[in-house]
Amino acid sequence: MTSVRDLRLLAVEIAQEAGELARRRREEGVALAATKSSLADIVTEADREVEALIRARLVAERPGDGFLGEESGAEPGESGLTWVVDPIDGTVNYASGFPSYCVSIAVVEGEPEPELWTEVAGVVFAPALGELFTAERGGGSWLGEKRLQVSTPGAAGALLGTGFGYDPATHDGDLATVRRVMPVARDLRRIGAAALDLAYVAAGRLDGFFERGLKPWDVAAGSMLVREAGGAIAHPDPADVTRRMTVAGSPALVAELVGRIRGD
Ligand code: IPD
């Protein structure tokens, strides 16, 4: 029987190896492999290579577990555990030479659906920034050796992060959401990697974060980091499965943001 700690340590080991590969490939030059949902939604050769490395390591170490990856899809397992992987979150940053990209690996229990799974361990590793965020169930969130705690906004308002989907048709709606939350914001950041946004909420760097349309691999590890740092995650419109809204922050800020996003 593998402990939760062992699963976290395995996720850390693989994320560091994968992150190093991504960083090395970035230095050698980025090759675009394809576009996905729109011209802005790109995949690089490195995304595929890094996911293949992670998958191969997991097959060798945990042959009975399931897998859900951004680039290679889902494969059910028989152990009840599934590894949810974004090999390079922040691919546009990666391709454009911004250092804000990361490897995101989570291991979850139960159905591989965000509403149905129970988080077991999560790791977000940003190789070009040299930062490793980790969490295990009931064990808190950590940046290296430092325990993390979500922040409470100061008198100037909340420092918020957000993101915009790759489909230009959705930008007007996303900007309308920004307009609704700005009265409680001191400022807004668009970092370009949702897993890092969530890790920054866990670390109290951002007070809160909201984005529509994120995929399970974008949020699996980061949501766990937020919850284990005393924060909350909400999905105000569960019926909208294709462009579901994710809201993160302290429980009080999440309640405030959800109200504003819904237009209450
Ligand atoms: C993207 C990033 C980005 C977010 C997009 C995601 P990818 O993930 O997290 O910040 O705005 O919605 O798809 O494509 O770089 O793995």
From TrEMBL:
It is an enzyme of class 3 (hydrolase). Keywords: Hydrolase, Magnesium, Metal-binding. It holds the Pfam family Inositol_P. Its EC number is 3.1.3.25. One of its GO terms (molecular function) is inositol monophosphate phosphatase activity. Transmembrane segments: none annotated. It catalyses: a myo-inositol phosphate + H2O = myo-inositol + phosphate. Belongs to the inositol monophosphatase superfamily. This is Inositol-1-monophosphatase. Gene3D superfamilies: 3.40.190.80, Fructose-1,6-Bisphosphatase, subunit A, domain 1. Coiled coil: none annotated. PROSITE patterns: IMP_1. InterPro entries: IMPase (IPR033942), Inositol_monoP_metal-BS (IPR020583), Inositol_monophosphatase-like (IPR000760). PANTHER family: INOSITOL MONOPHOSPHATASE, INOSITOL-1-MONOPHOSPHATASE-RELATED. The lineage of its organism: Bacteria, Bacillati, Actinomycetota, Actinomycetes, Micrococcales. Its cofactor is Mg(2+). It comes from Microbacterium resistens.
